[in-house]
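**Protein record**
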Amino acid sequence: MVDGVPGTLRAWDAPAPVWVEPVAAWVDLHGDWSGRAVVTTERRTADGVARALLDLPDDAPVGDDDLRDAFGEVANVVGGNVKSLLPTTGSMGLPQVGATEPAPAGSVVVAHVLLDWGGRALELTVRAAS
């Protein structure tokens, strides 16, 4: 989805990263099952994702608006995939982007995976509302 290059996204096989300059994007799901899909990474990686999605050169600066649009779209796609797995219909909120995802009180992590995108970590988390 991001860069169109097969094999650039695979399982992360190193210790879990400690985010230094994190960026998180999330989208809430509403319906019979409510929850949230979250994508977290470093700002440098989020900038790379934005460049790939916007077809910008590798050294192009990424403004905050472009980062929010592109990285929010990644969360939107992840959330849409989660929604498609649910047995009932529901709706999705608009993607949000921030330095950290404010986990809803009482939510429970139901899925978590670390991925490697070209040597950079992406963390996907799905939370169920309580």
User: Anything to note?
Assistant: The CA atoms of residues 51 and 60 lie 7 Å apart.
